[in-house]
Every structure is written in C-alpha cells, then in structure tokens.
Amino acid sequence: MDEYQIRQEAITRYLTGEKVSRITRSLDKSRQWFYFWFERYQSGKTDWYLDQSKAPKHIPAKIDSQTEQTVISIRRQLETTSYSQVGAISIQYEFYRRGLKPPPVWTINRVISHHGMKKQGPRSRICLKEYPELFIHTHQLDLVGPRYLKGDGRFYSVNIMDTCCHSCHTKPVRKKSSVQILQAIVEFWQSHGMPDALQMDNELAFRGSNRHPRSFGSVVRFLLSQGVAPVFIPIKEPWRNGMIERFNCLYDQRFLKGMTYQNFDHLVQCSKEFDLFHNSHHRYSSQQHKTPNELHDQLLTPILYTGSAHLMKKILLETGVVYFIRFIRSDLQLKLITECFKVKESLKYCYVVAEVNIDNQCLNVKLDNQIIQTFDYKTPVDW
C-alpha cells in the first residue's frame, strides 16, 4: 500500500469500530498522525487523504521593473562615489532626494541580493562575561598603520570617534609619537567638544614607557590635566573599542583604498574632506538613521577645548585616576602594562577595573564598583 491507501485504511478501520491504539500499532504510526488525518477526513473534502501544497498562501507583490532598475542604478552610483555608504537606508535617502517614493528596506535588500550585489559585513562577537561600562560620554581612539604612499614613504592615521553620535576625526601622521597623537586629540576637541573619558588600547604611544611603566606619558598627562579619564581596554581585545574598529574598516576601504594620493600633503587634505563627508552624510541605524552632525546638534552644548596645544611643554601629573579594564584568568594575575599583581580568588574569570589613583598613590581593584583589593602604586608626578 502507498501512503494515501494507508491513510484511507486507517479511517475506514476506525469507522468500523476498531480502536485507535490498535490501528496505529499495526500501521506503525503515531496517535498524532491518526488524529491529524481524521481531522482532514471530517472536513468533508473528497481528496482529504492527499498532501496539500505548503507554498505560502500570500505571495508579496513583485517590485516593478523600473523601480528595480532605479535601485540597481543608485546602488552602483553610490559604490563609485567616494566615501559614500551603499546600504538600503542610503538608497532610500537617494530616492527621497530625487523626489521618488522609495520601496521598503527589505525590498531593496532583496533586489540587491538577487543581483549579487550584497556584501557580507563583519560578524559580531558575542561575549558572555559581564563587561564594565565606566562612562556615558566617551571618545574612542585608535592608531591605523603603518600604511605606505607610493613614492612618499610610510604614514599612520590617528582616528577618534565620539560614541554618542559617531562623529569622527582622522589625522594622518608620519610617525606614531605622543606629540602627533596629542595634536589630533586637541584638534577634535577644539571643534567637537570634550568627553568624560578617552578609551584606547594599550599602544605604547598612548600610555608612556615600557622601561618606566608607572611614569605615564604625554597623552595620559594631558587627559588628566583636562579632567578627562584615560581608559585602557583589556589586552588583545580590540573589539572592546568596537566602534572605532568598525570605523577603521570603513576608513581603510572607502578612503585609503578608495583613491590614489599624490603625496602626504594630498592625503592630509583628503582626510579632512573625508571627515566632513562622513559627519554630514553617513547615517547610522543605532541613532535612528541620523548623521553624526544631526545628532550632535541635538545633544547638550559641548565643552570645547579652548587652550593651545603646547605639546612639548612638560605636564605635571598632579591628580586624577587612570583606568585599566582587565580580565582575570586562572593564574589570578592582574596584568597592567609590564607589571603583574596577584589578586583574590573571588576575581577569577571576571572583568575588573584597576584604578591607578594619582592622589593616593595606590592601585584599587574593583568589581561591580566595589573595591576588592588595594596595592601601593607610587607614580612619579614629574618627568
């Protein structure tokens, strides 16, 4: 018997008074299977025992060919436009700019995917450990490079981003010195405003010296002198500076690889143009598709840095706290820069905040904002 005959036989035997358990046992079927087909039989249809199509009952209307070609045309135009975003939201805004009614985002994505134009973005990292969030208004800082200009040598780029509105600042520099980094920070703060904290990785130029790890360098000293907290993310965890890392990918693909630069001066000038274009045109879904400039204008009036960058002037280390976020492994070692401290068993497999307190000359180890351990930490206040 085929499957259709088995279904018919089961119902026939049931109608003659045979028990369901006996029917299902002899046919090697489940009771759920029997009641499913009995319900089909009760519908009164003559073909109740046949399989029904599983195709969706509602097929969405197809996009008309003219709109589809407009989506493709706009996408290709954006791909050839320097620095521009190319996603569905940007395509929608281009429809609005042309005075056309745009299709929904999912329709645009379907058209892009159907024509093989969809690009896979970076996969997000999932971390199950609770990570401390110290400040609300934070800038993220990173150093890109070395990169090379044909016929004009090596360069780096100091990149800064405001996590509240995605405003960016990029500054190509010849070498990764604290003087060049400070110039970039000062330029951004003079035009954009100062944050509560500046978050960065453990790059030597950011923190100071390996030979004298407790003698912080110009970057940390300048931040503390302005009341801005320096925050160093865990070692070998660049995704903790995820916003600036994602921006670095955009900067590399749409700017550094997007065109050829005649020399370093040309690169510097184009970098300024890229910042202006990004801050006025790029739209982020996390901020309701507003551009950085649109959202920045809605925030509280920023506190601009009004000083001049006397970068070679020695800055005394007078007051403040330097923050290090670290993950404690099974060896119970808190690794700051070149120094290690043995911590309590209760901190194993936890992210802790190690605070170097300049005023009290101590190192406080905190978990969930509670001081768990304290170490003496003598820090030179002069140079």
Low-confidence stretches: none
- Strands of the widest sheet, in order across it, are 3-2-1-4-5-6-9-10-11
User: What would you call the structural class?
Assistant: alpha/beta
C-alpha Rg (nearest Å): 31 Å
CATH architecture of the domain at 140-210 and 217-298, by name, is 2-Layer Sandwich
Q: What's the mean pLDDT score?
A: 84
Strand content: 15-25%
Q: What is the succession of H and E elements?
A: HHHHHHEEEHEHHEHHHEEEEEE
CATH topology of the domain at 140-210 and 217-298: Nucleotidyltransferase, domain 5
The separation of the N and C termini measures 94 Å
Count helical runs. 12
Biggest sheet features:
9 strands, mixed
List how many beta strands DSSP finds: 11
Note the main attributes of this structure.
383 residues; Nucleotidyltransferase, domain 5; 11 strands
